[in-house]
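Researcher: Quick test of sequence recovery. Tokens follow.
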């Protein structure tokens, strides 16, 4: 993954690069670094740790051009030597790289045989030496020749001593240019540019750009092309914590607004079939949802909901496991869910879907992200920037999107009209649950001492058991497993006991009696049970240790409330444990590697 930033202009580059780097730190944060070119050498500052470690760099750093990097290790452990930028043998060239170079071992051997000496274990360093080999004063030409040797994915930014600008290039890793006033920038993602400019150019695969303070030149397939300038819709103020202790909490609290914005203009009381922001396309005979991690859980919820409102066959797949045979998906819509729009596994699955003949739609939060170029159409969620590595509000926006999609394809019915009413009521129900946060904090205080936990549910709430467990693992570092309640007795029962609390989602729906049976069976094995139940449930408290109440809702909407309750629980446990909630260890927000 990794985040890169480049600047060239009239200002001191170092503080601008550091501020930009903070905005892409969600992409990785095990080490970081900056390089500033001077007349004879490129100065490199890098260290182990997150971007703030560079704040301690000694005074006297000067330069109006530079590149910067925040790393999520793929090849080579997190260490100062493996941190970017990487230099050539002469220290006249430095590069930052996001991606993976598949043939780096062969290239490294070739370069070593020619006398190049390497300082790191990374794949990225070969790029610096390849450019060094080709460089005769024309940096653009050297980058073009060097990258022709690379197999794999890369977004790179390159500086050279004596060159007053930056050369950037991308293939299968994101890169966006920012056009400023007497200055120009590049970054892995638009938020890194927002403090300086909202005017951006999203690069295509194979694009190479030369940035100078007063100009940006772009080459595509060897020919110079005009810049297609777009305005970023997000504001820099949305990237702040707004008084919250963590972005995760801020983003959980934003969910009523996110639901409203994603629904806006899509539903009406006169026609229960939702209007979609995608071009009319031949109705499918089958629908497939794909995604990874949290996005897969939204896909799975889409499968459950779809099958309740539409007779069409529907399936959900983990994107990395999706492998349809060519030609087998004609008349199928493949709906790819990805908050970042950059997840390599999901983009790869889309390519397979298209080869199989499917019509593909991306549901994403990020304008012009790679996924939007890979699919036939795009449904932008209206979640606003999500900074915390743990997906919360974008998961909610995905739920809204998959429900709308199902309600678009479903036959008209009174049941559908009832769902429209509930959709409109959900922002205030989610708000009521958020307002009752104190009951969740109290529960967190009880559960934080445990090391293992199970979450169970039935039907459409099963994906929430999986998602709740993912959140607990991700931010609270608590080993949690989500199960379909019926499955627990087929093996996991062996682990139940006094120290394995179980959270049971038991909204009043057709599955309620069976959930009650499962809860009794678990209690009989000594495990503490917390039920998440509707506010008006008076029965469950007789059978469980604790009840966490959620507002009463249509059973198909219980997942929305269950997930908010579990997000808040995970957050509260993580807070009690004093963990780095927004940047959990070993993770990154966009996973652009396989
Ligand atoms: O950007 P995407 O939605 O494609 O990301 C997929 C997963 O990497 C992501 O949902 C991950 O599981 C989150 N960190 C979960 O909070």
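Model:
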């Amino acid at each position: 993954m990794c985040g890169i930033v480049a600047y060239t202009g009239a200002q001191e580059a170092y503080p601008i690069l550091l501020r930009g780097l903070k905005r892409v730190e969600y992409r990785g944060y095990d080490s970081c670094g900056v390089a500033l070119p001077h007349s004879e050498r490129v100065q490199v500052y890098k260290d182990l740790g997150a971007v703030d470690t560079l704040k301690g760099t000694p005074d006297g750093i000067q330069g109006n051009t530079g590149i910067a990097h925040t790393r999520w290790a793929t090849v080579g452990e997190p260490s100062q030597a493996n941190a970017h930028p990487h230099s050539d043998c002469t220290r006249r060239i430095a590069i930052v790289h996001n991606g993976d170079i598949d043939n780096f071992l062969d290239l490294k051997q070739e370069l070593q045989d020619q006398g190049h000496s390497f300082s790191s274990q990374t794949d990225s360093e070969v790029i610096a030496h390849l450019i060094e080999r080709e460089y005769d004063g024309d940096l653009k030409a050297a980058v073009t020749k060097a990258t022709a040797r690379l197999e794999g994915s890369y977004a790179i930014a390159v500086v050279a001593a004596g060159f007053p600008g930056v050369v950037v290039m991308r293939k299968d890793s994101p890169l966006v240019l920012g056009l400023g006033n007497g200055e120009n920038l590049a970054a892995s993602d638009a938020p890194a540019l927002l403090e300086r400019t909202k005017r951006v150019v999203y690069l295509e695969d194979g694009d190479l750009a030369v940035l100078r303070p007063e100009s940006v030149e772009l080459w595509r397939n060897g020919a110079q092309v005009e810049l297609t300038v777009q305005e970023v819709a997000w504001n820099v103020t949305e990237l702040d914590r707004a008084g919250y202790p963590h972005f995760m909490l801020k983003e959980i609290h934003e969910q009523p607004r996110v639901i409203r914005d994603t629904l806006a203009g899509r539903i009406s009381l006169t026609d229960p079939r939702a209007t979609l922001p995608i071009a009319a396309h031949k109705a499918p005979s089958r629908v497939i949802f794909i995604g990874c991690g949290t996005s897969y859980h939204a896909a799975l919820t889409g499968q459950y909901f779809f099958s309740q409102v539409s007779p069409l066959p529907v399936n959900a797949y983990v994107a990395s496991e999706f492998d349809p045979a060519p030609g087998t998906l004609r008349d199928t819509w493949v709906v790819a869910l990805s908050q970042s729009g950059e997840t390599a596994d999901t983009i790869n699955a889309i390519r397979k879907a298209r080869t199989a003949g499917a019509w593909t739609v991306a549901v994403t939060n990020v304008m012009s992200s790679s996924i939007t170029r890979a699919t036939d159409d795009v449904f932008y969620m209206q979640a606003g920037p999500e900074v915390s590595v743990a997906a919360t509000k974008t998961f909610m926006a995905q739920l809204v999107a998959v429900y709308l999609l199902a309600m678009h394809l479903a036959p008209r019915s009174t049941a559908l009209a009832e769902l429209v009413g509930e959709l409109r009521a959900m922002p205030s129900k989610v708000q009521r649950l958020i307002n009752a946060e104190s009951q969740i904090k109290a529960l967190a205080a009880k559960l934080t001492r445990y090391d293992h936990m199970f979450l169970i549910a039935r039907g459409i709430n099963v994906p929430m058991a999986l998602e709740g467990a993912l959140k607990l693992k991700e931010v609270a570092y608590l080993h949690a497993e989500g199960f379909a309640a019926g499955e627990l007795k087929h093996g996991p029962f062996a682990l139940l006991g006094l120290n394995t609390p179980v959270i049971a989602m038991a909204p009043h729906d057709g599955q309620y009696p069976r959930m009650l049976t499962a809860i009794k069976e678990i209690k009989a094995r000594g495990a503490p049970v917390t039920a998440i139940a509707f506010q008006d449930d008076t029965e469950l408290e007789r059978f469980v240790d604790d009840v966490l109440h959620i507002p009463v809702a249509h059973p198909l909407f219980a997942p929305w409330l269950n997930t908010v309750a579990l997000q808040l629980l995970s957050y509260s446990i993580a807070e009690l444990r004093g963990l780095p909630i927004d940047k959990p260890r070993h993770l990154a927000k966009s996973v652009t590697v396989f």
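The radius of gyration is 25 Å.
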